[in-house]
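Per reviewer request, we include the raw input and output of the structure prediction for the construct analysed in the revised manuscript.
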Amino acid sequence: MTGPTGLLEHRPALRPDVLLSPPLLDGPAVVHLVKDPVSGASFEIGPKEYFLVSRLDGESTLAEIGAAYGQVFGRRLGEGNWQQLLALLGSRRLLAGGPPPAPPQPRGSGPRTGTLLRGTLRLVADADATTARLHRFLRPVLRPAVLGALLLVCLAMEGLLAASAGELAGDLRWLAARPVPLLAVATVLWLSTALHEFAHGIAARHVGGTVGEIGLRWRLPVAIMYCTVDNYRYLPRRRQQVAVAGAGAFANLLFLLPFAGWWTALPAGDPTGRVLGALLLLGSAQALVNLLPLPPLDGYTMLGHVLRVTRLAPAGSAYLRLRMRDRAAAGAYPPRARRIYLAYGIGSAGLVLVLGGALVAAALYAFAP
């Protein structure tokens, strides 16, 4: 049958592996992300489209879905609406029983891209399989009770270091004048950044995400490890997304625990203790600064997950500029969006000022005679 009645009796199904995100605030709108995990292609849809797409389960007819849609949104769908939606999904190969998914786009001709001065180098052929093996090895440690106990130990360590902040600052000044131990500390902290990236991937595997790439990125003279985490934005629970984003900083703190134990066991005045003190101060700063809610830090990503907001900083900046030019237009934003963007704009500006002042004070202290 080709008429409306025949079309409405169809029971189309979305491919079971297609990913749909929870609702995300994006400027004045609410969007959902749709991703084909095979091709890697993704796009945004609104709440109405999500209502329909998420109900294409192969069991409900289009008439039944349309009736539910009418009850929620007060509007019945015509045949043309369904044809447009199904044509979109079909063209993107997202419907079950349709053409096979498009192959993924090639990542380049080889593992290395860029130039000698800046570029990336993939270090493993199958990053997801590599992190899966690491996850299986570490699974006993990833139990909530164990992680909770480790978090308490890390907090106790940070409390001890905070109480010794003056001593540690003196150790840092001492280290800055000694190139050889300074290079050793820098090397250890570089290893901590590598652990940071692997922690994101292992956490993603633990909660159902995947890892797309592990490699080395350089902008000479700086070279750092990176781990590209895929699909975790589509996880249904905020705490899972926050855990993935925060895993790196947690790993940095765990990395410091043996050094903290060594530091506390050394007698006062031991030169090794001064090196360790400076390492603990810099390592703690590395971990805790990364939790600040400023882009591109992990804390910014965590805040976006908690608030269910995408592009928080640019969308907030756009709202504040609009608010200064046209209060009436800014008033068209939903109340929740206005509260979030105004609070983040004021809070982030204040945080930047505080950080600037702290850096100036630290520089004056470091170079004081």
